[in-house]
């Protein structure tokens, strides 16, 4: 019926949702007796006011780009893959194996291998729910969430019983050898003579994530496979008519989605921790859902939303560090953003559509 | 009809706009009590919008509604029911596992205990049945009833709620000719008992047969209201479209060539394990149109879907003498297309098009794997689509619009352009003009006949008997997954076809 212009759909709706979420968050901060204006200032200076803050913001954003893209690709095929968390954990296992088993002479050789390792592990972990959905009709939401738990338990076992160095009490692998250490953003920018924080977490994986955005865009909108993925996501009955095999597309879409989730591990495991620890993913898989929803499943939207959530993450930890606002509050703020941009989308969209229809009518008469 | 009674329904300058589209423009209408009033118009003319306003689904932007002379505010369907308006939708709103009785009281229960309501309804139903000859077994489950009976239940539901104005939206779409005749008898009876009936349809013949008065809508406006006895189908068609229309398909006699499609003992089992096609034998030659007649749901859809590669099947199908894979790797739609079978599916919105895709994306749907490489050349495809849309007069001719933004007729033209332009050996066509306006029907029929004259084989499935008779060179009638008989259109009539469609065997039909 009444349509809004595309820019309003893509930018205005998420923006208003965001403002609403921020407003409600401010009320929550007020309620616990803190000053919301000061809190916002602190978040902004903490996340964007220094190259250190920027570095960490970009590091978190890199995680979210991978998991956001993963969710978006599955979404285009009509699949609700909430198993990014588990797939990213398994990706970490793949990275750890690649980095520890082979004595890499240089990171530039280790990185492609690690990308491959993480992607394969993530993809295989997503393949099982995908296959079960395609062949057995087991609902992908149920299976992927179950597989998150299985992945966590499996990783626990691997770290405690198999991969932990004998002398260590810590359920984690040994430190990766130096040949598998990725350059930080400081190192990369130094090549161009740009000064950047040495202590920040961002590393060269950021560029892999940006490349992934471009590749996903090409895949979805420029390839025959992407065409079939979108067709299946929009209408399964029509796909059957066109001779597109749902089984094949579901499996392929889940493989790609899982591979993207797995690739997150090159950022957090290989780039940052330089060893595999328990719970390395820290919920980034779930944030990816919100990122993709907010980014309208478009790679560019995912990029912007990932930056926003990176900012919230980094700003939030600064809040916890310098004020008596508990770290949990930042979870509340993130939850509100997810609630408004994802679940309550229509609450903003429908009045906005009505306003646009009204404006159109007024300008005509 | 008496001289000037108070109209049962009067609309005064009712307008309704959706965004910039004016669906109804200052509609004024008087419906006299105790008459059957037809409302006819092309798709998108605003009939459904107008009825939705009457039934409280939409709120009119401007204008007034009077019911039996009283100004009425119909804010929702509850208010419409309270005002004595009943609506029978095209797609029935019945709970299938429930009995007739349970469906009738649904939403009209007197209190939280069912038993007294049921007893009351049972009494009321037998009363209604006697009064209007509307007999239905009150204890039968809806799922066990035929469509004709289900429709009666819908009418009973409205009467039970004390409706004395009945609105029927395209009521005969799913009925056999015999069932339609029964419905008309019921409607006449209701009218004679003083009820007012509004019949929305796009079938001119129905309007001529049973209405007393007819109103014509075009592009959101009420263009004319005339006594049915004072008009003719040709005149009504002209009023609907705004120009003279060919109601008959003009075509030369067929020049059948070699057999293109040969089907032997084709059997299909559905997901529930029910045999839907019980051994179909048929053949189609080059340069001829074989029409499959039948009431919806007797296996025609399955036949098309199997041939189009949407379902596995048992039996034997040959195309140009070559066997076609019915179950294996090459039984999908893309393999069929490669073999030269094009398919215009019955349901363009659920199968033929991806409604959210742009028109140009839809013009390669099913053929998107053609050509080399992983990538699609979007710019070239767009240019190609523009040219196709030009040739098929798709309006608006903008290939970047999403399919859902086109009218039904233009959507169908997009599908036809895609399938016919491939120059297939065999074209499967299902319901080519369902929900398509008269102007476009003419064009679509011409395209199909032109493809036939180019020496291609065409298998046509339609529930519109008129369309089958006027377009086909041979007619096969399907009932219950079987072919009941084959006829030549010049050598048969609707009564005979109707009997075959109802499953009366060939011998009896020959007698009758």
Count of strand segments of chain A: 0
Distance between the termini of chain B: 38 Å
Would you tell me the structural class of the helices and strands of chain B?
A: alpha/beta
Number of helices of chain A: 15
Number of DSSP E strands of chain B? 20
Strand content of chain B: 15-25%
Are there runs of chain A of 5+ residues with pLDDT below 50, and where? none
Mean pLDDT of chain B: 88
Distance between the termini of chain A: 20 Å
Order of strands in the sheet with most strands of chain B: 6-7-8-3-9-10
Approximately what portion of the residues of chain A adopt beta-strand conformation?
Answer: under 5%
Q: What is the CATH top level name of the largest domain in chain B?
A: Alpha Beta
Average residue pLDDT of chain A: 91
Radius of gyration of chain B: 24 Å
Biggest interface goes to: A-B, 27 and 33 residues
Distinct helical segment count of chain B: 18
The unreliable regions of chain B are 508-512
Q: How much helix is in the residues of chain B?
A: 25-40%
Write a structural description.
The complex is a heterodimer of chains A (365) and B (512). Chain A has helices at 6-31, 36-48, 51-76, 84-101, 107-136, 140-162, 185-191, 205-222, 224-234, 236-242, 246-273, 284-294, 299-322, 327-343, 345-364. With 365 residues, chain A is an all-alpha fold. Chain A has a single domain, classed as ABC transporter involved in vitamin B12 uptake, BtuC (Orthogonal Bundle), CATH 1.10.3470. The longest helix of chain A is centred in the first third of the chain and has 30 residues, at 107-136. The mean pLDDT of chain A is 91. Chain B is 34% helix and 24% strand. Chain B contains 18 helices and 20 strands. Chain B has helices spanning 47-54, 77-82, 100-105, 114-132, 147-160, 177-192, 204-210, 233-241, 300-307, 333-339, 348-352, 359-362, 378-391, 408-420, 438-453, 465-471, 494-501, 506-511, and strands at 9-18, 21-31, 36-41, 62-67, 70-72, 85-88, 165-169, 196-201, 213-218, 221-227, 259-269, 275-285, 289-293, 314-319, 322-323, 341-344, 426-430, 457-461, 474-479, 482-487. Chain B has a 6-stranded mixed beta sheet with strand order 6-7-8-3-9-10, with helices on both faces. Chain B has a 6-stranded mixed beta sheet with strand order 16-17-18-13-19-20, with helices on both faces. Chain B has a 4-stranded antiparallel beta sheet with strand order 2-1-4-5, covered by helices on one side. The radius of gyration of chain B is 24 Å and the shape is globular. Classes of the chains: A mainly alpha (365), B alpha/beta (512). Chains A and B meet through helix 8, helix 9, helix 10 and helix 15 of A and helix 10 and helix 11 of B.
């Amino acid at each position: 019926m009444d349509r809004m212009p595309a820019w309003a759909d893509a930018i205005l709706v998420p923006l208003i949702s965001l403002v609403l979420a921020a407003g409600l968050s401010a009320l929550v901060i007020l309620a616990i007796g803190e000053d919301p204006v000061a809190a916002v200032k602190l978040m902004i200076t903490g996340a964007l006011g220094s190259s250190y803050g920027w570095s960490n913001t970009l590091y978190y954003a890199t995680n979210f780009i991978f998991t956001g893209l993963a969710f978006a690709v599955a979404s285009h095929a009509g699949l609700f893959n909430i198993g990014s968390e588990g797939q990213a954990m398994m990706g970490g296992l793949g990275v750890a194996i690649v980095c520890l088993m082979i004595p890499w002479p240089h990171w530039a050789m280790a990185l492609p291998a690690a990308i491959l390792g993480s992607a394969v592990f993530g993809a295989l972990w997503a393949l099982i729910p995908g296959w079960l959905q395609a062949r057995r009709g087991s609902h992908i939401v149920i299976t992927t969430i179950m597989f998150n738990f299985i992945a966590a338990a499996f990783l626990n076992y691997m770290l405690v019983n198999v991969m932990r160095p004998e002398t260590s009490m810590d359920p984690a692998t040994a430190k990766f050898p130096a040949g598998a250490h990725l350059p930080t953003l400081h190192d990369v920018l130094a090549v161009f003579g740009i000064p950047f924080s040495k202590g920040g977490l961002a590393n060269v994986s950021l560029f892999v994530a940006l490349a992934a955005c471009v590749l996903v865009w090409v895949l979805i909108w420029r390839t025959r496979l992407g065409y079939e993925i979108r067709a299946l996501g929009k209408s399964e009955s029509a796909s059957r008519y066109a001779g597109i095999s749902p089984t094949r597309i579901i499996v392929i879409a889940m493989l790609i989605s899982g591979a993207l989730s797995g690739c997150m591990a090159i950022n957090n495991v290989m780039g940052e921790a330089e060893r595999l620890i328990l719970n390395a993913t820290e919920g980034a898989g779930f944030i990816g859902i919100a990122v993709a929803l907010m980014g309208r499943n478009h790679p560019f939207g995912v990029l912007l939303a990932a930056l926003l959530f990176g900012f919230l993450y980094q700003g939030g930890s600064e809040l916890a560090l310098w004020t008596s606002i508990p770290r949990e509050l930042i979870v509340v703020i993130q939850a509100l953003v997810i609630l408004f941009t994802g679940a309550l989308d229509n609450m903003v969209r429908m009045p906005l559509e009505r306003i646009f229809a009204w404006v159109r009518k007024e300008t005509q008469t | 009809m008496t001289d000037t009674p108070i109209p049962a329904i009067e609309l005064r300058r009712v307008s309704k706009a959706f965004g910039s589209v004016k669906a109804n423009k200052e509609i004024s209408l008087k419906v006299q009590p105790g008459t059957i009033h037809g409302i006819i118009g092309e798709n998108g003319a605003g009939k459904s919008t107008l009825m939705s306003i009457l039934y409280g689904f939409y709120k009119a932007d401007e204008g007034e509604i009077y019911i039996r002379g009283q100004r009425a505010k119909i804010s929702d369907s509850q208010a419409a029911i309270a005002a004595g308006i009943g609506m029978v939708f095209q797609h029935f709103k019945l709970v299938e596992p429930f009995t007739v009785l349970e469906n009738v009281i649904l939403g009209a229960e007197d209190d939280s205990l069912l038993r007294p309501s049921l007893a009351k309804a049972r009494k009321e139903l037998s009363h209604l049945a006697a009064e209007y000859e509307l007999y239905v077994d009150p204890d039968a489950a809806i799922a066990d009833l035929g469509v004709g009976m289900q429709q009666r239940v819908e009418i009973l539901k409205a009467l039970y709620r004390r409706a004395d104005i009945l609105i029927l939206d395209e009521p005969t779409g799913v009925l056999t000719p015999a069932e339609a005749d029964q419905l008309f008898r019921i409607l006449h009876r209701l009218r004679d008992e003083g009820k007012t009936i509004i019949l929305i349809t796009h079938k001119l013949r129905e309007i001529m047969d049973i209405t007393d008065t007819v109103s014509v809508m075009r592009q959101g406006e009420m263009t004319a209201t005339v006594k049915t006895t004072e008009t003719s189908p040709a005149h009504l068609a002209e009023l609907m479209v705004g120009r003279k229309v060919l109601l008959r398909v003009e075509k030369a006699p067929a020049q059948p060539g070699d057999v293109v499609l040969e089907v032997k003992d084709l059997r299909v089992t559905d997901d529930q394990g029910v045999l839907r096609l019980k051994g179909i034998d048929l053949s189609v030659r080059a340069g001829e149109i074989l029409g499959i007649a039948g009431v919806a749901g007797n296996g025609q859809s399955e036949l098309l879907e199997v041939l189009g590669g949407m379902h596995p099947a048992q039996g034997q199908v040959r195309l140009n003498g070559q066997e076609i894979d019915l179950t294996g790797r090459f039984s999908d739609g893309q393999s069929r297309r490669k073999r030269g079978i094009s398919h215009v599916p019955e349901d363009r919105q659920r199968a033929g098009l991806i409604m959210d895709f742009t028109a140009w994306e839809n013009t390669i749907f099913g053929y998107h794997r053609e050509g080399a490489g992983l990538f699609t050349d979007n710019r070239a495809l767009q240019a190609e689509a523009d040219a196709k849309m030009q040739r098929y007069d798709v309006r608006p001719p903008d290939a970047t619009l999403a399919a859902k933004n086109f009218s039904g007729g233009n959507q169908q033209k997009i599908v036809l352009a895609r399938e016919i332009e491939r120059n297939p050996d065999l074209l499967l066509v299902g319901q080519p003009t369902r929900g398509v306006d008269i102007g476009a029907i003419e064009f679509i029929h011409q395209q199909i006949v032109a493809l036939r004259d180019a020496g291609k084989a065409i298998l046509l499935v339609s529930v519109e008997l008129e369309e089958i008779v006027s377009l086909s060179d041979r007619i096969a009638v399907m009932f219950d997954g079987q072919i009941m008989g084959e006829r030549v259109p010049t050598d048969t009539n609707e009564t005979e076809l109707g009997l075959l469609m109802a499953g009366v065997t060939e011998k009896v039909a020959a007698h009758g």
